[in-house]
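User: Let's play a game. I give you a shape written as tokens, and you guess the letters that built it. Ready? Here's round one.
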């Protein structure tokens, strides 16, 4: 990894207002380009707005109109763009997808793999955990909201080489203080896996009676908060990620316990119970 400037957006997405939401994405991306960011991440389902009941109605194919617009914005700005939409699937239930749009016109995606109980009747889970290259700067992974509650996901991304894990959210205000909740587990994900963790959330009113709490947070591979914004409003936050900590930790032979890459000492032969779809007990 080399030093990388990232941008995170807290964004108010109006439900069904795809054109207006895409216009807003373009404005924020231009601002981030003006601040010399290399990658910008927008919240979960920011393009159509987050709504379970109407997910099928607003779902699009990928490639499709919205992904083409995002690609054009990426080409014009020179930024890698991570933006969320509802993607049509072979079933009636769409995927919660985060587009990965490169300035050279390449388009990839990550489909949310872990769905909350309230999402399962409406969405289809993805079944892949890809990583993505940011030119020669860094390797990226994605966890969408609920995904981050499953430690195995971020561990696999780290083992695949991810140095930055982006976590776009659509967390409602009713769920509680976002900063307090995020710090309960995101610090551990960053520290144990030696990754930068960068989260952002929808904010404000979606125009259909749903309110989102917002928030943007960056945690370094030592578990320290290096940037945050919890102001309850739309906002672009830019953060500089220093390469040194990641690179020291990821050396094959670290001279100090302080900088050990914990995952290099894993013993997968002891973890077989993780593959069983049941609770582990000692009876």
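Assistant: Ready! My guess for every position:
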């Amino acid at each position: 990894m080399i030093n990388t400037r990232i941008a995170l957006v807290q964004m108010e997405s109006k439900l069904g207002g795809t054109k207006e939401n895409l216009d807003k994405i373009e404005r924020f991306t231009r601002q981030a380009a003006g601040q010399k960011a290399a990658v910008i991440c927008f919240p979960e389902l920011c393009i159509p707005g987050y709504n379970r009941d109407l997910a099928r109605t607003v779902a699009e194919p990928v490639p499709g109109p919205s992904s083409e617009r995002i690609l054009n914005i990426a080409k014009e700005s020179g930024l890698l763009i991570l933006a969320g939409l509802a993607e049509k699937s072979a079933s009636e239930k769409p995927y919660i997808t985060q587009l990965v749009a490169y300035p050279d016109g390449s388009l990839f995606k990550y489909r949310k793999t872990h769905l909350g109980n309230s999402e399962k009747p409406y969405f289809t889970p993805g079944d892949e955990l890809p990583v993505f290259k940011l030119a020669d700067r860094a390797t990226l992974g994605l966890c969408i909201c609920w995904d981050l509650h499953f430690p195995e996901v971020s561990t696999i991304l780290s083992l695949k080489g991810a140095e930055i894990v982006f976590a776009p959210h659509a967390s409602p205000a009713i769920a509680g203080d976002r900063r307090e909740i995020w710090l309960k587990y995101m610090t551990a994900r960053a520290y144990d896996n030696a990754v930068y963790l960068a989260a952002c959330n929808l904010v404000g009113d979606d125009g259909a009676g749903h309110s989102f709490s917002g928030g943007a947070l960056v945690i370094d591979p030592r578990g320290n908060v290096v940037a945050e914004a919890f102001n309850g409003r739309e906002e672009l936050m830019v953060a500089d990620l220093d390469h040194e900590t990641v690179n020291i930790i990821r050396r094959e032979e670290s001279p100090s316990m302080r900088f050990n890459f914990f995952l290099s000492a894993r013993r997968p032969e002891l973890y077989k119970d993780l593959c069983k779809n049941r609770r582990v007990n000692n009876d």
